[in-house]
Amino acid sequence: MGSVLTMSMLPIRHGKKLLADIAKNCYHLFMSTNHIDQVKASLESTKGEWPSVCRDTGIGYSWLTKFAQGKIPKPGYKQIETLRVYLQKRRPQKGAA
Q1: Which residues of 59-79 are buried (b: 16+ CB within 10 A; e: fewer)?
Q2: Residue 29: is it exposed, middle or buried by C-beta count within 10 angstroms (0-12/13-18/19+)?
Q3: 5 burial class (0-12, 13-18, 19+ CB within 10 angstroms)?
Q4: Does domain 32-96 have CATH number 1.10.260?
Q5: Predicted confidence band at 1 (pLDDT cuts at 50, 70, 90)?
Q6: How confident is residue 97, by pLDDT bands cut at 50, 70 and 90?
Q7: Against a cut of 0.70, is the pTM above it?
Q8: Where are the domains of the chain?
């Protein structure tokens, strides 16, 4: 049977550093500038509909407008991924009309 390494097996200072390193690497992997720019471009195409985007996604209007203006240097993964999925689902519906 294989061994499983758990956080309780690591000294706390090593565990916290490990988690911080993992989080940093995941952020950079998923949040490339290109990825963020694609979401911004998709969002820009829905300008005028942002209140409904906010209502449908649960993302605050203030955050959305600041993100669109580039005033959030490191937007969170959850918000970006929520917007990406929402806007991607919405895109075919607009073209079908």
Answers
A1: beeeebeebbeeeeeebeeeb
A2: exposed
A3: exposed
A4: yes
A5: very low
A6: very low
A7: no
A8: 32-96
Instruction: For residue 46, give every residue at least 6 positions away whose Cβ sits within 8 Å of its Cβ, in sequence order, or none.
Output: 53, 87, 90
- Residue 74's pLDDT is 84
Contacts of 83 by beta carbon, 8 Å cutoff, 6+ apart: 39, 42, 43, 53, 57, 59
> What whole-number distance in Å separates Cα of residue 80 and Cα of residue 18?
24
| Nearest Cα residue to 82 out of 96, 64, 94 | 64
C-alpha count within 13 angstroms, C-beta hemisphere, residue 50: 17
Helix (H) or strand (E) holding 11: none
